[in-house]
Amino acid sequence: MDYSKTLNLPSTSFPMKANLPIKEPEILLSWEKQKIYKLIRERCKGKKKFILHDGPPYANGNIHVGTALNKVLKDIIIKYKTMRGYDSPYLPGWDCHGMPIEHEVIKKFKIDPSKTNLLEFRKKCKDYALHFINVQREEFKRLGVFGEWETPYLTMDFKYETTIINTFFNLAKNGFIYKGDRPVLWCINCKTALADAEVEYDDETSPAVYVKFEIIDSLKEVVEINNKKSYFLIWTTTPWTLPANLAIALNPEINYSVINVKDEYFVMADSLVNTVMQKVNINDFKIVKSGIKGKKFEGLRYKHPFIDRTGIVILGEHVTEVDGTGAVHTAPGHGEEDFIVGKKYNLPPFSPVDDSGAFTSEIPNLTGKKVFDVDSEIIELLRNKGVLLLDEKYSHSYPHCWRCKKPVIFRTTKQWFLKVDNKDLRKRMIDIISKVKWVPEVGENRIKGMIENRPDWCLSRQRYWGVPIPIIYCAKCEKPLIEDEVFNKINEVVLKEGTDSWFIRDVKEFLPKGKKCSYCNGEEFKKEKDMLDVWFDSSVSHLAVLDGNRDLSWPADLYLEGSDQHRGWFQVSLITGVAIKDCAPFKIVLTHGFTVDGDGKKMSKSLGNLVEGRKACEKYGADIVRLWVASSDYKDDIRFSEEILARLMDAYRKIRNTLRYLLSNLYDFNPLIDKISYEKLADIDKYMLHRLSEVINESTELFENYEFFKFYQVIYNFCVVDLSAFYLDILKDRMYIYPANSLTRRAGQTVMYEIIANLARLIAPILVFTSEEVWQELRKKCNIEESVHLAEWPLVKEEYINNEIKEKFTKIIDLRDRVLKLLEDLRNNKVIGHPYEAKVILNIKDENDFALFKQYEKDLQGIFIVSQVILNKGDKFEIKVERADGAKCERCWNYSKEVGLDKKHSSLCLRCVNILKEIGKYE
Ligand SMILES: [Zn+2]
Ligand SMILES: [Zn+2]
Ligand SMILES: [Zn+2]
């Protein structure tokens, strides 16, 4: 007789091989048919809201694994919150304007926007953005991310653009907006201002000079010297900025020396005297006095080395002793720090340089000459004046234009600004920051520090593809018209026609009929030409998308982006939020690190180590990419490499096999009919339900704290350690050998069903496809939700908590581990083959332990998966293994002395003989 036909061997249509790259698109298709997202939305109606507001990615290029990481993290949270019973819609958005798209269009069509039809150029930019919105949308959907994909928000929508200009108006009317001089990074080749993010640092060799500036006032207050000439020694790598020198900055707390060289005195930082003197090749010098604090020199006047002008000594904390002389040449029109420190001393941002980088008539000798061409001329001039101590080549990292790769300069121009200190905005933002929850916590101090130190926000961009700064000037008196009637009219046109209208329509069409300048009665007007900083677009997303939207809510519960957004989106959103609504637009801000390759190198196009999201899905499957996201501690940089993915594939296989094994033993189990009540379960079953409860509790807590990588570990360990290596292994005997409908088998199935029904839901936010595959298998047996993504998050059943059994089994498992270790050794030494060939003899000394094990004496053989266990009370703890007694039963493979007692089935043990009788197979 073929006894294997009398066993209940596992069977399932759930495939072992996942084949995710093929299977996932099929599941996506079924979701689409089912209109799964719409179903979710309908079921959430009226529930408490949880709004994660999407930071709009830039509509430029395919998504890479870094973008995937961000979107998947968002999706994990939204799927979890949805299962927890929140109404958590996800409205994705795209950032559509700005330089990167402009740049790509210029490259692709080889056009110069300043020389083409602006509307045509803008149309090309718009099409470019739309193309990549479509590309990225498909790529995000492929990752299993649910959302309002057909109606995303776009920063170039007319309605959105209207919010941008209205926010600008609102800020302007409340005194936040002003036009002022300011040094900005400027490309003299592209004739445009550049944002910090639009410059690239690259090595550059510059002429460095040591120059002496003659002090006019006496140094008497500081040091007793005779009437010889005294000088400050400065060092600069941009000699062309010397014509704009207005001050010398010293650090108030650094110590300075006065040194004597022949009949001259020089002032410089104590710590730099030797280095500098060696450099300029002066060996014969004497330190007259040192340890003079920088603040002692404040207000001293000096002569400009080649222009008839005096400058003053000012103090600034930015002055260091790292290089140079500790006395810093200061041109407030040509540097950010110089501008800031100059402002404290009321120094103007003097910048005698035009758009093309040529000197203006303010510097007569250099008028018309380009800044980068005059360095040698200025050096000659200094030499002739006898104030040059040294000139040399200096190699350093210098900012270059993102677009043309040429070195850029700082230059003062008229720009529109947002005043960060208007109406106490800065202070209010800092107060409000501490009311927001920052995950991880370090984010709070990071953004606080940035807000404390940030300069006013320069809103002007000399660009083509963006929202124009909606300002109309009087052509006669040049005053901007900050007036409601003007703003209302502009708003009206833009809402209807978008911001292209700014370039199509005449200025008069944005003004009420018969408008005259309120200052000079002028009747001619002109439009501002600059665009708004693209960050201004995204800074109002909370107003454009959340505010007044019935399906969403303001403020958002959560913003979730890369940690660079402390400087970017979080900060600018906070500015508009606090300025307009006196409140942060978010309650929680969660940040993640950046994706790096296996060597820890930042991923970038130029390094060629960027992995596209689409390719990762094609190669591994979206669930593996999602598992990578979930398993990474996103607080730090996140590594992505072949090895990491291979390891995850292996982990995934283990989890999948556990799920499959559970399903394969449930083929004849109908939970409605076959379920066994809790009291009738074996203790080991109860123990597993207790473990399941622990896993649910831990998972819930970890999801609440956004600690997905710990959740991954919990699930992995539960599948591999608790289930695969323990419970499911032990269950095999009960599942296969006993009658299909026996209590012991149904009890095991009851627990297996509980486990898989909960496990499928626990992993649903992460393994969105695999959990659905499992769910559809479960649906074949009972009436559950159409999709796992419509199911609720598991709740712990109170009756499953059983600490007493947990305690007992902790001891039993500990004993089991020791027994298994010994069996393993014996197997390795070929003493036994299968563990069924073993008989385990336990000598237990501890009274309590003995009592406990005695209680489970009958079960131990099954728990150890051996044929026999002898339990003795011993005088020391000891485990011995001998060969099992009797012969191997052909049906259950256990060894037993009873094998052969039945004449008809002489190769079976009596247990199997009785089971055959029970199932009617005893012939
Ligand atoms: Zn440039
Ligand atoms: Zn006027
Ligand atoms: Zn048997």
Description:
The protein has 923 residues and is α/β, with parallel strands linked by helices. 40% of the residues lie in helices and 18% in strands. It is built from 28 helices and 31 strands. The strands form 10 sheets. A 6-stranded mixed beta sheet has the order 11-9-10-7-6-15, covered by helices on one side. The chain has a 4-stranded parallel beta sheet with strand order 1-23-24-17. The chain has a 4-stranded antiparallel beta sheet with strand order 5-4-16-18. α1 (20-34) crosses α24 and α10 crosses α16 (569-581). The longest helix is centred in the C-terminal third of the chain and has 30 residues, at 708-737. It starts with 19 loop residues before the first helix and ends in a 5-residue tail after the last helix. Bound molecules: zinc ion (3 copies). The site of one zinc ion (ZN) has 7 residues, from loops.
Weakly predicted, low-confidence segments: none
Gross morphology: elongated
Mean pLDDT: 94
| Number of helices in the DSSP assignment | 28
Distance between the termini: 10 Å
Structural class: alpha/beta
Rg result? 38 Å
Strand content: 15-25%
Molecules bound to protein: zinc ion
Spatial order of the strands forming the largest sheet: 11-9-10-7-6-15
How would you sum up the major sheet?
A: 6 strands, mixed
Number of strands: 31
- Helix % is 25-40%
